[in-house]
Amino acid sequence: MLCEMCKEQIATIHYTEVLPNSQPKKMALCEACAKQKNLPIATQFSVADILKGLTQAVQAEEEDPTAKCPRCGLTFARFRKGGRMGCAACYDAFQPKIQSILEEIHRDKQHVGKVPKCIAQQSGATAELAELHQELKEAVDKEQYEQAAILRDRIQSLKSNVQDQKDNK
User: Fold this and answer.
1) Among candidates 18, 16, 42, which has minimal Cα distance to 28?
2) How much is the pLDDT for 59?
3) Where in the sequence is the domain holding 63, given as residue range(s)?
C-alpha cells in the first residue's frame, strides 16, 4: 500500500485521527510523511530481537558452547545469534542457559499475566486439587484417617465443582 500523502513510498504507519463531531479518519503513511505531520512513531521490537539482545547482554553460561538440541540440532551459539529456537525440545535442551534470560524478560519464573477467567479458575482448582492430594497422601502415611476422610471429601467436592463448571460452558 502506498503512502496516502506522497503516493510514492510504502505506507508503514497506519494512523487513525478522531476529531470531535466527525467520523474517524484512517490514513496510511510512510515514515517521512508521518514525521512531517509530527506523529509519534514508536519503534517496535519483536520477541526475537529482545531475546537476541538479552542473550548478548547477559552472556549466558558458556559451559559448553557446542551444546545442541537433541531433536533439531540447533546449537546454543546459533540460538544466541538468531534469537529463535528451532523446536520445542530446544527449550529443554537450553533451559539452564536461557532461564536467566527469560526471568529478565518476564520478571518472574512463572507466568503471572492475564488469562481468561475460565482457565484461571481451572488452573486454581487444579493446583488446589494437587495440594489436597498431597495432604491426603501424607495423612494416610501418618495413619490420620479422620483427617484423610475430610480431605477426601474436599477433593470430591472440588472435583464436582470443576465438572459442573465444565458442563455449564
Assistant:
1) 16
2) 52
3) 47-106
